[in-house]
């Protein structure tokens, strides 16, 4: 019998693939750092890389400015126990955008991820009927949220689900709440907009890179005109041009257009100054979608005591264990990664391995009591403490679910927003960030007409 799988999102619908991106030739991408360019891209995550590739393909002058020493943003591949591991984005939906086409054109290897997630309870995989019950509860929660906002009033996702729940609630209701809230967005359902969460319609990740998604992003940016360790401090509107000031660099870069691919919480915190300031409507929208808390913990689990296939994902039923999602046997190795959300993730961000080690042990002990394994060392992400990131994906607060539409507006006539927070339905994903970067670059290019510079 074929093992049933859990859906990775609120429903099973997949979108058709977007148009393919052309392989970018090296001569079109190689430039020396100019003081005047057509487009400045601020932020070297997936959105910024996608935007820069699109601008380079159009043979326009540009520069991609990244404040850190690496490209990729929250797509980061680290060394752990002598192996390569993603402690951020671990995959993407092949059907969404052009990441796969770009990667293959650049000679990057891709592999398929197992479809769906395995569901465990009390240390054992549940029966087929439990998969059906969980999937039904997940679908019911989404319908409840849609019904709650049908009249135009945006409420907390928890309130929408609670008010619509029948007297005999599904035994999987608590697990669904964890899956959608702390493990999906890094926040409890009580702090999430029902409208924003119900609109989210992102296909599950089904593709990854054996070298790591962070390594993949670095490869896709290898031929771009990039300045790393180049934090932007000020963007000044000067009519037909914007001036971009970098820390430690006296002469600003002038640009006819800007793609702003910086995480929403970084913008909301005012880490980059704008003169004149950003429109109040945009500032309010950024503050209305605060970042959640998701941190990842890598560890070795020798001997495959959980009997997992390579790269399988596991969700355990809500219970005594701290809620977490498991990615098992990374590329067939003994390496495993747990993703913690909300309060445990905040603790990991603040305390690092000191907090992550007991949390990981507690999760294994409660979720798989028969697994004879002693975890003595872990490696963790700390996105919440990174001033260039400031948390995980951005999800709307109750009453703020309509704010994402603001991010489609052009700012000061020449600034175009890009990032995982920009799409209305595909927010919070690597594919969504990449697609938003391409879209922002396409809009910027319209300022110059169809021909090359």
TrEMBL record:
Enzymatic reactions: L-tryptophan + O2 = indole-3-acetamide + CO2 + H2O
GO MF term (any one): tryptophan 2-monooxygenase activity
UniProt-listed GO biological process terms: auxin biosynthetic process
Binding site for substrate: 340
Signal sequence segment: 1-30
Pathway recorded for this protein: Plant hormone metabolism; auxin biosynthesis
EC numbers on record: 1.13.12.3
Enzymatic class: oxidoreductase
Gene3D superfamilies: FAD/NAD(P)-binding domain
Cofactor(s) demanded: FAD
Binding site for FAD: 66-67, 232
Keyword Oxidoreductase belongs to the record: yes
Keyword terms: Auxin biosynthesis, Oxidoreductase, Signal
Domain Amine oxidase: 47-444
Family, per entry: Belongs to the tryptophan 2-monooxygenase family.
The protein, known as: Tryptophan 2-monooxygenase
Organism taxonomic ancestry: Bacteria, Pseudomonadati, Pseudomonadota, Alphaproteobacteria, Hyphomicrobiales
